[in-house]
Amino acid sequence: DRGVIRCVISRNPVGVVKEKLGPVKRFFGSHIYSSGGEGKLKSLQTFARDCGINDLSKIAFIDDKPDNLLPVARETDVYVIGFQGSGKYPQTRDICHKEGIPFADTVEALEKLLMG
User: Model's pTM, two decimal places?
Assistant: First the structure.
């Protein structure tokens, strides 16, 4: 409604991601990408190109893994948010704080960061 384009970038193959998303995949349209081998940064750049987004500061990238967050934060103008997510990466909060990357530990906190 507000011109927001959503996408999923996963290390899993696109077919697996679609299966896991189930009915919510409709919110992402054709914007489901596999970063397998390329990394999230490359897939994010592909998404931006596919959507005609030249100003990367208009993109919000949310992830729970520092290895995914840091290249995007350091090499682009994308709005990067660290998220507690799976809880598999307890160091993410500290790394985000050190790097000046916003961090959300709950969905409510994430929503506040996204809505301003």
Answer: 0.84
